[in-house]
Amino acid sequence: AEDLGLIRKGLVDNFLFSTPAGTARSIAVDTVLRGATLIAQAKDYSPPARINAMVLLAGLDDAPGNGGSTPPQPCAKALNVLVQMGRDESQPLYLRSIALYGIERQIGRYFHTNAWNQNIKGGIGRMLMQVINSSPKTELDLVAHGWMVRRAMDCMAATGAYIPALADKVITMLGDENTLPSLRMSSANYMMLMDNTKLTPEQKKAYFISLAHFLRSQLVDWYEMEDDLLNRSGGGSTAFGGGMGGGYGGMGGGMNAST
User: Fold this and answer.
1) pTM, entire model
2) Cβ atoms 176, 184 nearer than 8 A
């Protein structure tokens, strides 16, 4: 696996990273596209080989960026295979997640331009909703599936599109303490980037309540982590009864003194 990663890095560094747009680059991109597609989709290749092929497809550019002033142009021909892999439920979750990363790159560059027509945008949107509405097949898939759904939600956030059913779903996830923290973060990200002026009054109310629950849970997590660190360092508990001033000084000490 390490050797494959080095080969991929060498290929990118030597042929794709700095080679300007033109005939030589077009030949290199088309060659990588054909080979990486074959390996990524063929289930008889090893997982490391398929992962490296998928990473190549996700990061393949028709033209490199120019020091930040000009963003890279993701390979237009790679979009089809990325969407196919992202949609295909028979593919491993880790490959689908990488495909969705590639789709997010494409959305960021092309969605808000005239490069894609409504059919392309609609097809991508339907695929992303299919992923977001899917469920893990087993408990062992819970975290990997959550990562894939997060990728799909980040793609939707990049579009900025308001979809009523998706807004309802992410508002619920945002306030649900049993939802994976990464998904709750992506829910907050979607709500921040989408056109929230289109939210209904009911959705705005639910969003406010869910956001309050989310912030509370984050504060509790932070407080418990700090409490644990203080206990480990011998500074005492931050719990009110045991000396909130154990590690933070004045407040707890003053409270204890006054009693």
Assistant:
1) 0.76
2) yes
